[in-house]
UniProtKB/TrEMBL annotation:
Taxonomic lineage from the root: Bacteria, Pseudomonadati, Pseudomonadota, Alphaproteobacteria, Acetobacterales
Key word Oxidoreductase present: yes
Protein name per the record: SDR family oxidoreductase
Keywords, alphabetical: Oxidoreductase
Top-level taxon in the UniProt lineage: Bacteria
Length: 253
């Protein structure tokens, strides 16, 4: 992918750590000017500084994707800084601790949906306004293998990730003849801070997760980044409305 994105502008949400950070770094190293957005301003500021020191063009933006005002401001700063938007990875999201559907509080349902599903919609809404004005662009939304399968005890998370796939397909059809491609990526179990939080860093739990992976290991953030860059590249010019599993064979079982 060396310098394949020279002259392009890429936006990544949830870019402070994990898959978002790895994807922002991959875009920058492939030649793109990159906007790193995250609710944790300190983390993206640090990441943007590191990329700038490597010679990349990088802008850090604090954004809570559950706030449309924040998302509008993020897009305004992107266009003010770089003039356009060519690629977007809508990656910001949260997960909740296991809780049965009947016991899930309203507030937790609303929290997960507001960030994962409504936040993805807000980002797409404002990214598309810019891309439609240009007549070009590529968007990848972060779903999950949980968007393709059910998992007991994660009702809000699973519903939100299924919803992202539906949103992706609908928008992709709307934009199919307008020069804009929209897809989703469905990561499997990836070694990220979110996984550490979910497992409590318990090595025994992680070992059990590894046993469930046909490939015999957990995924790496850089492997998701590679998939996102491919979906955003001209190599994927005929791919739209697709939910791409990147899960080491888990969903093939």
């Amino acid at each position: 992918m060396s310098k394949k994105f020279e002259g392009k502008v890429a936006l990544v949400t949830g870019a402070g750590a994990g898959m978002g950070l790895a994807t922002a770094q991959a875009f920058a190293r492939a030649g793109a000017s990159v906007v790193l957005a995250d609710i944790n301003e300190e983390s993206v500021a640090k990441a943007a500084r590191a990329l700038t020191e490597e010679g990349a063009k990088a802008l850090a933006v604090r954004c809570d994707v559950a706030s449309e005002t924040d998302v509008e401001a993020m897009m305004a700063r992107t266009v003010d800084a770089f003039g356009r938007l060519d690629c977007a990875f809508n990656n910001a999201g949260v997960i909740s601790q296991h809780q049965d559907t009947a016991d899930l509080p309203d507030a937790e349902w609303d929290r997960v949906m507001s960030i994962n599903l409504r936040g993805t919609w807000y980002c797409m809404k404002h990214e598309l306004k810019q891309m439609l004005s240009q007549g070009s662009g590529a968007i990848v939304n972060a779903s999950s293998i949980g968007g393709l399968n059910g998992v007991a005890g994660l009702p809000a998370y699973i519903a939100s990730k299924h919803g992202i796939i539906g949103l992706t397909k609908s928008a992709a059809l709307e934009c199919a003849t307008k020069g804009i491609r929209i897809n989703a990526v469905c990561p499997g179990v990836i070694e990220t801070p979110m996984l550490d939080w979910l497992t409590g860093g318990d090595a025994t739990v992680k070992a059990e997760l590894v046993k469930a992976q046909p490939i015999g290991r957990l995924g790496k953030p850089e492997e998701i980044a590679a998939a996102v860059l491919w979906l955003c590249s001209s190599d994927a010019s005929l791919v739209l409305g697709h939910a791409l599993s990147v899960d080491g064979g888990y969903s093939a079982q």
